[in-house]
Amino acid sequence: MKIELAKEIISKEITNVKENPLVVKENGCAACHVLFNLSKEMQISEQDAADLLSEVLFANPDLDVSFIDMVENMHMKRRMMGTAFAIKTREAKDKYIYSNFKNTLAELHSDLINYGPDIALRKLLMSMISLEIAKNIGIDYHASTEELYYFMRKNDQETHENLLEFINRLYQSMMVNRERK
To answer: What is the C-alpha to C-alpha distance for residues 71 and 139, in angstroms, rounded to an integer?
Structure first.
């Protein structure tokens, strides 16, 4: 019941954004728009909504394709994000960067405390991979993150194994370095 309701909400929001891109406010994120509306309509936390969104998209490949098409259309075809930042004064840019710097460190620290080092490391890895995709393709970060998640849902077993293998090798390397000291 919960999954079906979530699927209906997600589908409706994808259609809404495709039919009227202005429902995504100013430089907002299309994926976040769907997520926030899912959270609001189901009266669940944003984290629970994010988990539910991933679960629904993973289980419904056609809806997943429709979702990524919506994100690509909004972030890559309909707008050129980044110009609002570029026209700011240097002082305003520096304040914005510093605020994001501090907030990101605080969020990562919170994840470390609440969920442990594996989740914090996975989050760092996902961010780095998304950033590389954005940089190499020339798209914004939100779009690259959604592209990455789309790819990972399609290749769930392989990508999960690759991440675990990297994390295990990292931990092994850290243990070897500790033993040397």
So the answer is: 11
Domain boundaries, the chain: 1-79, 88-115, 116-181
How many helices (H) does the chain have, and how many strands (E)? 9, 0
Please give the structure tokens belonging to residue 33: 């728009």
- Asked whether 95 and 42 are in contact (CB, 8 A), the reply is no
Q: How confident is the chain (181 residues) per 10-residue block, as mean pLDDT?
A: 93 93 82 92 91 92 90 73 66 88 92 90 93 83 88 93 92 88 74
Which H helix or E strand runs over 40? helix 30-42
Six-digit token string for 3:
């999954």
Q: Alpha-carbon torsion 63, 127, 50, 46, what sign?
A: negative
What is the pTM (predicted TM-score) of this model?
0.62
